[in-house]
Automatic annotation (TrEMBL):
<dbReference type="InterPro" id="IPR051531">
    <property type="entry name" value="N-acetyltransferase"/>
</dbReference>
<dbReference type="InterPro" id="IPR000182">
    <property type="entry name" value="GNAT_dom"/>
</dbReference>
<dbReference type="InterPro" id="IPR016181">
    <property type="entry name" value="Acyl_CoA_acyltransferase"/>
</dbReference>
<feature type="domain" description="N-acetyltransferase">
    <location>
        <begin position="11"/>
        <end position="151"/>
    </location>
</feature>
<protein>
    <submittedName>
        <fullName>N-acetyltransferase</fullName>
    </submittedName>
</protein>
<dbReference type="Pfam" id="PF13302">
    <property type="entry name" value="Acetyltransf_3"/>
</dbReference>
Length: 184
C-alpha cells in the first residue's frame, strides 16, 4: 500500500475523506451554479461513489481527490486533487480536478489548493505531467489553469464524451503542465 499524503496551505487542509463529508459533498454537487460546467448534477449516490473511487485511488496511488477544509472554521468547502485521466492518452496521465462551494469563490482558494496539488504531483510523486480539461466556454476554469502555468493545446480540442455535439459544454480544451515547466 502507498503512503497516503495530506496537504496544507496557509488557509486550507487538503485531507482524506470522512464519512460525514457525504452530505456536504452531495449539496455541493447538487448546486446548479457549482455544477454549471459539468454535464449534469450529481446525486447523493454519485457522490458516495466519487468518495469511494477517491479513497481507492489514494490506496493504490497515494493521491486522489482531497476534501478541502478551511483552517479558520474547519468547514468542508469542496475538493481538489488528482485522478486518473479518463481520456485516451498515449501514457497513463493524471488530471487535476476541483469543485468549491459558491460562497468560497473569488478568494483564491482553488488556486491555493491546486498549487499544493501540483507541487505534490511534481516534487513528491515525481510525475512528469498533469493535465486538466475545461469546457471552451468555462472562462473561470481556463483563467485558473493558465494562472497555474498550464497551457491549452488547441490542436487537441475535443468533444466531451458524455455530451452531444450540439451541447454548449461539448467543446473542451486539454491543458497540460510538464514538470520542467512547473519548476520554472
Amino acid at each position: 500500500m502507498v503512503e497516503r499524503i495530506a496537504l496544507e496551505t496557509p488557509r486550507l487542509r487538503l485531507r482524506h475523506w470522512h464519512d460525514d463529508d457525504l452530505e456536504s459533498l452531495a449539496r455541493l454537487c447538487a448546486d446548479p451554479e457549482v455544477m454549471r460546467y459539468y454535464p449534469a448534477l450529481m446525486s447523493r449516490d454519485d457522490c458516495a461513489a466519487l468518495m469511494v473511487r477517491s479513497r481507492l485511488h489514494f490506496v493504490r496511488h497515494g493521491v486522489g481527490l482531497w476534501a478541502l477544509e478551511r483552517k479558520d472554521s474547519d468547514a468542508f468547502i469542496g475538493y481538489c486533487g488528482l485522478a486518473s485521466c479518463a481520456l485516451p492518452m498515449p501514457s497513463p496521465t493524471v488530471e487535476l480536478l476541483w469543485a468549491v462551494t459558491c460562497d468560497q469563490w473569488g478568494q483564491g482558494l482553488v488556486h491555493e489548493a491546486a498549487n499544493a496539488v501540483l507541487q505534490c504531483a511534481f516534487d513528491t510523486l515525481g510525475l512528469d505531467e498533469v493535465v486538466a480539461c475545461a469546457a471552451q466556454l468555462n472562462e473561470p476554469a481556463r483563467q485558473l489553469l493558465e494562472g497555474l502555468g498550464m497551457r491549452p493545446e488547441q490542436a487537441t480540442a475535443f468533444g466531451h464524451p458524455d455530451l452531444v455535439p450540439e451541447h454548449p459544454l461539448h467543446p473542451q480544451l486539454l491543458y497540460r503542465l510538464q514538470r520542467d515547466d512547473w519548476r520554472q
